[in-house]
Each structure stands twice: as structure tokens, then as C-alpha cells.
Design goal:
The complex is a heterodimer. Chain A has one domain: MetI-like (MetI-like fold). Chain A is mostly helical. Chain A starts with a helix and ends with a helix. Chain B has two domains: 218 residues, P-loop containing nucleotide triphosphate hydrolases (Rossmann fold, 3-Layer(aba) Sandwich); 120 residues, RNA polymerase II/Efflux pump adaptor protein, barrel-sandwich hybrid domain (OB fold (Dihydrolipoamide Acetyltransferase, E2P)), CATH 2.40.50. In chain B, 22% of the residues lie in helices and 37% in strands. In chain B, the strands form four sheets. In chain B, strands 7-8-9-3-10-11 form a six-stranded mixed beta sheet, sandwiched between helices. A five-stranded antiparallel beta sheet of chain B has the order 2-1-4-5-6, covered by helices on one side. Chain B has a five-stranded antiparallel beta sheet with strand order 14-13-12-15-21. In chain B, helix 4 packs parallel to helix 5. The chains are: A mainly alpha, B alpha+beta. Chains A and B meet through helix 6 and helix 7 of A and strand 7 and helix 2 of B.
């Protein structure tokens, strides 16, 4: 395999991992709000979270470009005050992948939060645990399988993400050219089939490994949490 | 310990408007399902907030809707034993027991982990998961977990209601030891006369969201009430003889003796017996050829018709009063009158320790 191909693989793994980890706290918060919150605009929040699932990825990418581009509302602010530039950088690719995977992550965590027996949280409260401790010691361990499933889904989505990424941060080798973009590039040049096939096999292997890892983690957690 | 609680809360159609005071010991909240017992205990625990109410424990105001005081549940330090044990499924029994202890203030942490584990007989279960325990075991662990959080007050909401009779019998002795060996005051919610008669120092009966009566078990449990199927006399006596082959214990009351199925009682022990009024028949002559072991002679102390065809007869036997519930027709046929000598035929007696 060429250096370029290795770079694309490494970049894809990095982008997907960062997208998954950075979106996790937001995913937990939004899932908790949607599952438990009683506030005005809950269905609006729900709609916004699910938009990337419904919109064409190119549209999502274009919206990100408008918002987070160098001249965009949020992008200009980030650049000026925090020195963070997202457009045409790998961080922008991570943002695009994170946004695309976000609804899947939120959905999975939300369902597991809704399945938690709130009576157990009540019992923890009577034993002296404040709300934060109840969340850490009771709610979080009980929703762990759902959280893991959500993380794996988000990771898998990020690995396969193409449309929004290429629209937002383009296809720059070594910076924003992820696995999917590299495969696409190979198919656009004569004689690139062999390279495309090599990367395709790598993509299959990574997806399979992620799936096995999630099954294994779910097994470990499931063995620990023996729900009656 | 002193506890004063008052609560007014509208829950849909149902209105809770009740309160009581306690000076420690075991206070039973007693009444049929839907009478508001659990709602009142949830107010005490801080699990629900009444529309109007006050809760003062040892001079500390934990709830006062007038002055907007509401101490949240995790700062009240009240142990709560729920009807379903509510053990944490992701923790072992040992971790469940340690959970509340961890949040208890350092100075109040009970140093008697082993003693409480021994008291409840759960030493063998420590390394197991709650999912692998029987109903009775779970409930004992739940009681231990609440006790080990060093509560100022233990609230028990029908802790035995979800268990079958055998499991109940397995746990009741532990509850008695708890009452006798720890100084933690208990509020015990139940709709079972036998549990209340056996455990309570003070009984608060509730009906339709209100407090109906307050008193000692023997005072309150014999009061007339249309929906109390188990109503009856609660008498105190001393175990005189144990007949081990027949598994019977003879109890001496003020005048008469009664025989109760129980081989575990100890001679000389002071016990309470509960005689449900529906299980007492009346005869004007001493009956013969009956299977009933207990036939007590007495005189009629009161005749109380309930206006619905049934009559409650109070029979004086020495200093004890037995209750019997018979039809108005029987009263006429037997020509029952005050001070008439009769025989009370007792079908069942339950020893309440």
C-alpha cells in the first residue's frame, strides 16, 4: 500500500475517533434532555438533532460551510477568539462526521435512558445520593450498553461519511482526504481500481472490527448488569 | 426522636389530608390500599412535595410549604424500604449495602456492618448479584442497605406485601429483632392486621386520604370499620406450656387459657394474640363434639349493630374483651342481651409474639 493510502486510513481513524469522543458528552446531554426534560421546544430540539439523518449529506455539508466556514457566523467567532479554524482542515472533517453521526448516537442513548427504572434512582436518592451522584453511580452504569452502542454507531457513520465531509472541507490528501474520499478519488482516475479495492478491503476490516468490539463490550456489560 | 408531619395534597381525584406525630418506636400506618399511606410516607421521605404541609423531626423543619422550606430527599437521611426491593442490579449485594454508607456523614457512619449483616442473616449473600436472590433475600438486603445509610428514621412501605406467606414468616422475626435491637425509629406502612399487631407500638389508621384513628394496636385494631376484614381482638398473654408433639402453645390470658398452633414460642414469654372477629362464633350452651380447641366462657359486654345486617358482639372474659361478628338474625335467635353468659367458639388464633 502506498503512503497516501496509509495516510487516508490513519486520517479516517483519527477523524472518526475524535468525532465519536467529542460528540459523546453532547450526545449524553441532549439524550438526557430529550428523555427526561420537560421544556418548551423539546420537539424542536429533537427535530434539529435528527435533521442530518433526513437531509441529503451535501446539504448538511453546505450548511456547515455557511456556519463554520472562515466567514461563517460561528466559524468567524471561533477563528477570532479561540484561533480554531475548521474549514479545509481535518478538524472540520471531524465536525462533519460528528454531526452526521450525532442523531444515531443520541437515539441509542436516549432509548436506554428511557428504559432506566426511575425507581432505582429514587432509591439512590433516599440513600443520600444527590442528583449528580445518582447519575454517575446508578443511571450511567445502567445505560452503558446503550452508550456503547451509540458510540459504535457514530464511529461507523463517521468512517463511512462522504457527502457532508467533501462539501465542507473538500478532498485534500493528507488533511481532509478520508478513506471514503480516497476510494472515490481512485475510482475517478484510470487504473485506480486496484487502489480502490485495497482500501475497500481495509474499510471492510475496520467496520468488522468495530462491530466485534461493540458486541464484546455489550457482552461484558451485559454480564455485569444482570437485569432481572 | 420526635416526628410531626402534616400534609395536604391533591392527586387527581384523591385528596391526601393527613398527619400524625411519633415519639419513636414503631409507628404503623394502617389502612386499605388507596387510603393514602404510601402518599404520606413519600411526603416524609421527600419523594413528593405536598401542596401544603409541614414536617419537623427532632425540632428540625424539613418541610414547610408556608415558609418554602423543602429539604431534598438525599439530605433528609431517612432510610426507605420499598415494597419492591429496588436493589441496584449492576452492584453486588456488598456494594448495595455499602452504597448508603458512603453518603452518610462521617460521624454518623455505622461501624456495625457485620452486626447488621448478622441481624438480617445476609452474610452468605454478600458476593452475589441481586438478580440471583430470592424475594425474601432481596428484601432483607434492602432493609440492610437502608439501615447502613445511618438513617435517623426508617420508613418501610409495605416491605412484605410482595412476598408469599412463607417469605413473610421468614422476614418478620428479623423485623422484630430490628425493632428490639436498634434504636432507629420506624414508620411502617401496612394493610395487614397481623403485621401491625405484631410489630407496632402505635397505630395510625387511614381511610380515603385521612387519618381515622390513632392508638395502641389493641385499641385501634378492634375499632369498628366496615372494610377491615381482619378486625378483631388483640390480647396480651403469657406462654404457659408448649406441646411439642402437637406443635401447640398454651397462652394464659387474664382469666382463660387459649391454645395456639406454634411450637417455636418460649415458655414464660409475653405475647400478643390476634383473634379475628369473623372467626369467633357464639353459643349459649357449651358446645360438644366440635373441632375447635378454644371455647371461652364470658358475658356479653356490648352489642353493636352495623346497620347492614351484621352485629359486633363484645364478650368479656375476665379483663379481656373478645370480638365476634355475627348476623342480626343470630342475635335474635339466641336472644342475646347484655350481661348474658355465652361461650365464644374461636376458630383461629394467630400468635403475634
Amino acid at each position: 500500500m502506498s503512503d497516501e493510502e496509509w495516510t487516508a486510513i490513519r486520517l479516517s481513524l483519527k477523524v472518526s475517533a475524535v468525532a465519536m469522543i467529542v460528540s459523546l458528552p453532547f450526545g449524553l446531554l441532549v439524550a438526557y434532555l430529550l428523555a427526561r426534560g420537560k421544556f418548551w421546544g423539546r420537539s424542536i430540539l429533537n427535530g434539529i438533532v435528527h435533521l442530518p439523518l433526513i437531509l441529503p449529506p451535501v446539504v448538511t455539508g453546505f450548511l456547515l460551510l455557511i456556519l463554520f466556514g472562515r466567514r461563517g457566523v460561528v466559524g468567524a467567532f471561533l477563528n477570532e477568539y479561540l484561533g480554531i479554524v475548521l474549514s479545509f482542515r481535518w478538524t472540520g472533517a471531524a465536525l462533519a462526521c460528528g454531526v452526521m453521526g450525532f442523531p444515531l448516537m443520541v437515539r441509542s442513548i436516549r432509548l436506554s435512558i428511557e428504559a432506566v427504572d426511575r425507581k432505582l434512582e429514587e432509591a439512590a436518592g433516599t440513600l443520600g445520593a444527590g442528583p449528580a451522584w445518582v447519575f454517575i453511580t446508578v443511571t450511567l452504569p445502567l445505560i452503558l450498553p446503550g452508550v456503547i452502542a451509540g458510540m459504535i454507531l457514530a464511529f461507523a457513520k463517521a468512517m463511512g461519511e462522504f457527502g457532508a465531509t467533501i462539501t465542507f472541507v473538500s478532498n485534500i490528501p493528507g488533511e481532509t482526504q478520508t478513506l471514503s474520499a480516497a476510494i472515490y478519488t481512485f475510482t475517478q482516475v484510470p487504473g485506480g481500481d486496484a487502489g480502490a479495492m485495497r482500501l475497500t478491503l481495509v474499510a471492510i476490516a475496520i467496520s468488522f472490527a468495530a462491530l466485534l468490539a461493540s458486541e464484546f463490550l455489550a457482552y461484558l456489560v451485559g454480564r455485569r448488569v444482570n437485569i432481572e | 426522636m420526635t416526628l410531626v408531619v402534616n400534609a395536604w395534597q391533591a392527586l387527581g381525584e384523591f385528596v391526601l389530608d393527613a398527619g400524625f406525630t411519633s415519639d419513636g418506636g414503631v409507628t404503623a400506618l394502617f389502612g386499605p390500599s388507596g387510603s393514602g399511606k404510601t402518599s404520606l410516607v413519600r411526603v416524609i421521605a421527600g419523594l413528593s412535595k405536598p401542596d401544603h404541609g409541614r414536617l419537623v423531626v427532632d425540632g428540625e423543619t424539613l418541610l414547610d410549604t408556608e415558609s418554602r422550606i423543602f429539604v431534598p430527599k438525599h439530605k433528609r437521611r431517612f432510610g426507605y424500604v420499598f415494597q419492591e426491593s429496588r436493589l441496584f442490579p449492576h452492584l453486588s449485594v456488598r456494594q448495595n449495602l455499602a452504597y448508603g454508607r458512603w453518603f452518610a456523614p462521617r460521624t454518623a457512619r455505622p461501624e456495625n456492618f457485620d452486626r447488621i449483616v448478622g441481624l438480617l442473616g445476609i452474610g452468605m449473600l454478600l458476593d452475589r448479584r441481586p438478580g440471583k436472590l430470592s424475594g425474601g433475600e432481596k428484601q432483607r438486603v434492602a432493609i440492610g442497605r437502608a439501615l447502613l445509610s445511618a438513617p435517623r428514621l426508617l420508613l418501610m412501605d409495605e416491605p412484605l406485601a410482595a412476598l408469599d406467606d412463607q417469605r413473610k414468616a421468614e422476614i418478620l422475626p428479623y423485623l422484630e429483632r430490628l425493632r428490639d435491637e436498634t434504636s432507629t425509629p420506624i414508620v411502617y406502612v401496612s394493610h395487614s392486621v397481623s403485621e401491625v399487631a405484631r410489630l407496632a407500638d402505635k397505630v395510625v389508621t387511614m381511610k380515603a386520604g385521612r387519618v381515622e384513628a390513632v392508638g395502641t394496636p389493641s385499641e385501634v385494631l378492634s375499632l369498628p370499620s366496615a372494610d377491615r376484614r381482619d378486625a378483631g381482638a388483640v390480647l396480651t398473654g403469657v406462654v404457659e406450656v408448649i406441646d411439642i408433639p402437637h406443635r401447640l402453645a398454651t397462652i394464659r390470658l387474664s382469666q382463660a387459657q387459649i391454645v395456639v398452633p406454634n411450637a417455636h414460642a418460649q415458655e414464660g414469654l409475653s405475647v400478643r394474640v390476634h383473634i379475628p372477629e369473623r372467626d369467633v362464633m357464639i353459643a349459649t350452651r357449651r358446645p360438644e363434639g366440635l373441632s375447635a380447641l378454644n371455647i371461652l366462657a364470658g358475658t356479653i359486654a356490648a352489642i353493636e349493630p352495623d346497620g347492614d345486617g351484621m352485629v359486633r358482639i363484645r364478650i368479656r372474659c375476665g379483663e379481656d374483651i373478645l370480638l365476634s361478628r355475627i348476623t342480626a338474625l343470630s342475635v335474635e335467635r339466641l336472644d342475646l342481651k347484655l350481661e348474658k353468659p355465652v361461650f365464644a367458639v374461636i376458630k383461629t388464633v394467630a400468635l403475634e409474639r
